[in-house]
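cron nightly-structures :: item 1 of 1
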Amino acid sequence: MRIDVITVLPKLFEGPFSDSILKRAQEKGLVEIHLHNLRDYSTDKHKNVDDYQYGGGAGMVMRIEPIASCIEALKKERTYDEIIYMTPDGELLEQGTSNRLSTFQNIIVLCGHYKGVDERVREIFITKEISIGSYVLSGGELAAAVMVDSIIRLIPGVLSDETSALTDSFQDHLLAPPVYTRPPEFQGHRVPEILLKGNFKEIEVWREEQALKRTQERRPDLLD
């Protein structure tokens, strides 16, 4: 899988993309992540990529020309399954979305900034708009990092135990059940006995019951 990220702040990705699971995924050759500094596509002598918005108002707007130049240059090299714009008014990122995106070969992720992008960018180039929540960040970079992480961990071979991702919260519209490890007792709090007996059929039933109970208590909306 190849992910091309268009951003005005590429350094923000150095930490998330160069450590832990995402680092190992790239080292294994399972995914390629390419960062593109939008300023490299600006024809402005100061490398500006924003301008005042028509009609007045607070906040600058990302200009269409450098974004178009970058996307068009990438599309000349390969076909993209999706061109995603990270924006607060996009579709809420959910597990099902990440599942679907993880099956693609090539995607572009455009990180919004300032007041947003010229609307024509969305009309001409963007195929999907995604938000990670009902709040506003300083830019789309952190949101993009969250989405990319949620996608890459689902690619076969990325996790050492591939079944781990299949038992995550939201995969079956339920929250994950509680988990425990050693020691069996800590400050009077014991691990449930059923987990210590080794009867995997009973343990599976217990986990399903606990997942349903936790979902009912914490996220009843998922059961709707």
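cron nightly-structures :: done
The chain is about 30% helix and 20% strand.
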